[in-house]
Structures are given as C-alpha cells and as structure tokens.
Write a structure and sequence with these properties.
single chain; 14-stranded antiparallel beta barrel; 420 residues; 55% strand
Length: 420
C-alpha cells in the first residue's frame, strides 16, 4: 500500500505540474504564433508594425496607426512540432517502460480573431480572441518515460478588449484587460497494473492587463512599447485512476500557477519605396516560475485534504527574445516577408522534464501578403524553428530517465483581413 501511495503521488505531481507546461511554439509554454501577418517576419517588430487588426493584441496603442473605420482579421495557424527522445543511460526497468515513445509532437490548429474600430478621430477600440498558451504532446503508451507522461493536452483562450487614445499627432497610448481560461487533460502510468493510468483534468479562469505606447518618431519610423501582466491561476481538478484498485486514490487537487509578464520594444521603418525593416526585443519574466506546490483538496488513500502532495522545482530564468525582419513590396498588390529570431529557453538541464523538452529556438521565416482588392488582405506565412537538443535526467519511482530530445517545429499561418 505504501508503494502504491508513492507511485500515485509521483504521477500526480508530474501531471499537475509538468503537464501544465506543455511544449509550445515559443520559449517556456507560450505560443509565440499569434497574427498570421506576423509569422512571415518571425514576429519581429510586432509592437510597432500596425499592419492590421492583430495590433489589438501586440500593442493596443498602435491601433491609432490603422486607417479610420472598422477592421477584422481572422487567422489560423497550423503548428507541427516534433520531439524525439534518445535514451543515454536510463535506469528504469523494462517492466515499467521501454522504447523511446515515438514522436511526441502533435499537429495543432490555433485560431485567432482580431477587431478594431474608431470611436472618434482620437479614440479606438479593439478586441482580440486568441490562444496564448497550449498545444499537446503524446507519447506511445509503454515507453520509458510513461511514469512521467503519456498524453498532455493544454488549451487556453484569451479575450482581450482594449482602447487606444491619440495624445498628439505623434504619440498614442493604450491599454486593455485579459480574461483567460485554461483547461488541461493529462495522463501517465502509475507503475502498477492495479492502479493503471492516472488521468487529470483541471481548469481555471485568470485575469490580467496590458498597456501600450506608440510614437511616430519620424515620417518613416515608428516605435512601440508594450507590457503584458502576469496572470495567476488557482487550478482545480480531479485525479482519476483507470485500474481496478484505483478508486480509493481518486480525488481532487489544486495548484497555483502563474504565467509570466512580458515587455516588448519594437521599431519599424520604411526604406525607400520598396523596403520595410523591423526589429524587437521581448523580455519575459519566467523567473516567477520557481516551484509549484500541489495540494490535496479531498482526502483519499493518498493523503488528507489540505496536505501538500509535493513541491516541484522549476527554477526558470527570465528570457530576452530578439527578432529582426524585412518586407519587400513586389508591386502594389504583393509584399514579400522575411524574418529571423532567437528565442532562448527559460529551462535548465537540472530541472527540465520530458513534458517540457524545451531548449533555445532559432526562427527562420518567410511569407507573402496579397491584396485581392482595396479592402481585403491575404497573408500566408511559414516559419521553421531549429531547436537545440534538450537533456533530461529525471528521478522517477522506477529509476532515472536519462537522455535527450531532438526537437523542431514547423508553422504555417493563413490570415485574411478586411476593412469596412
């Protein structure tokens, strides 16, 4: 019985903590892919570009740079990550798992929608519906790391109304609020056929805010500065075991999770009639993710209500993403996009887990914008992420999982914008 409790505790922690940080298309567990127009530039210069209604997310103050009237942008992003594990000395017995788990990456489709309108010549309103965090990993049942992860599915949706005010002909300010919901569905093997797999579902709604500053420094150059606050979650969910002896261990758990704040500084400039160039720096405060306490909220065979199941160390560090991009106007209807970015990981080789085999990423991107008529704009962008190999050395109830993950990601974005 004690051994079963230890197994249950270890798996519950892995699910409740590591699983909520599923690998995404940016450092940590953020989804860096938002606007379809930004993908072709590797999202360089996002706070200053002001190409379409997606600026309601990237910098609300820059909504004043859009033409008068109403604009809507609808985007779909096809994200295909790949995570392949190579064993380099694991000590987990074969009876508890064998094999490398196949490819843990899954195709994900991420939708976004943005809307802007003018209230008067100086005041604008915007609304963003997007997915800031998420994606999924799926490992083959029975693999060496099944004590930590089999399936992980994280979904978020963010609603972000905002306003922009034009202080002068050159300067605008803006701000908004975020209402963000997170859902998690996770599973792992307990190490016991009697207990089977442990499945966890958890959710919560959090609130935050964003601020923006925008300046038209010269007729050809504009700058943007935007800040997005932390959002705190008090996640509540249920832990259910699939095995014939699992029922006494079933119960409820909770864990506090905080997604970090971020600050972006961007510049955009035209160079003659054909070229546009852009760059940005984005700071993300991942150091707020140090540890996570998992608390039982109902008594079970695993422990009393209110007791701490365990504390998991993350010890993440703050990151600084750097991006540069350029556009070339082929003609009055067609624009070509290019982008390059370096997105460092907040994780480290000591505390990294296979649910988040994240490492430094280099983005290489290109895209095309086409205007079929005076009111419509179609953007198609593609980005490939080169990801540094991520090492893991994790202690489980069955031994150590030791190895590295070879990872990469491909992103295809399609966006249509229309003004009224």
């Amino acid at each position: 019985m004690v051994n079963l409790k230890l197994r249950l505790s270890a798996v519950a922690v892995a699910l409740a903590v590591s699983g909520m940080a599923s690998t995404a298309m940016a450092g940590g567990f953020g989804i860096g892919t938002q606007s379809g127009s930004g993908t072709g530039n590797a999202f360089a210069g996002g706070a200053a570009v002001a190409d379409d209604a997606s600026v309601a997310w990237s910098n609300p103050a820059a909504m004043t740079a859009l033409p008068m009237g109403k604009q809507v942008a609808v985007a779909g992003h096809f994200l295909l990550p790949s995570f392949k594990f190579t064993n380099t000395g694991s000590t987990i017995p074969g009876i508890l798992g064998s094999g490398n788990g196949g490819d843990g990456g899954d195709l994900a489709v991420v939708p976004n929608m943005f809307y802007t309108m003018d209230i008067n010549p100086r005041l604008r309103f915007g609304f963003a519906v997007n997915v800031p965090f998420g994606l999924a990993t799926n490992w083959t049942p029975g693999w060496q790391g099944q004590l930590t992860a089999i399936e992980s599915e994280i979904k978020t949706i963010n609603l972000n109304p905002s306003f922009a005010y034009k202080v002068s002909d050159k300067v605008s300010v803006g701000g908004g609020i975020s209402v963000q919901k997170i859902d998690a569905k996770l599973s792992a093997f307990t190490g016991s056929a009697a207990l089977g797999n442990l499945g966890l579902t958890a959710d919560d709604v959090g609130f935050g805010f964003n601020l923006g500053y925008f300046v038209q420094a010269t007729p050809s150059t504009r700058m943007g500065l935007t800040y997005r606050s932390e959002i705190s979650y008090d996640l509540e969910g249920s832990a259910i075991l699939t095995g014939p002896s699992g029922a006494p261990f079933n119960g409820s758990v909770r864990a506090d999770l905080k997604v970090p704040d971020s600050t972006s500084l961007s510049v955009f400039s035209t160079m003659g009639a054909k070229w546009e160039v852009m760059a940005d720096l984005t700071y993300t405060g991942w150091s707020s993710v140090k540890r996570l306490n998992v608390i039982r909220t109902t008594a079970s065979a695993g422990g009393a209500a209110g007791s701490t199941l365990t504390t998991l160390q993350f010890n993440w560090k703050d990151t600084l993403r750097v991006g540069v991009g350029a556009n070339y106007k082929l003609n009055s209807q067609t624009k070509l996009r290019f982008g390059l970015a370096f997105d460092p990981t907040p994780t480290n080789d000591v505390d990294r887990t296979p649910r988040l085999p994240d490492q430094d990423r280099t983005w290489v991107a290109f895209g095309v914008q086409y205007k079929p008529n005076k009111d419509g704009v179609l953007d198609i962008g593609y980005a490939h992420e080169f990801v540094k190999d991520a090492r893991v050395n994790n202690l489980t109830v069955g031994g150590r999982l030791i190895g590295s993950f070879n990872s990469k990601a491909d992103i295809l974005s399609v966006q249509y914008s229309h003004k009224f």
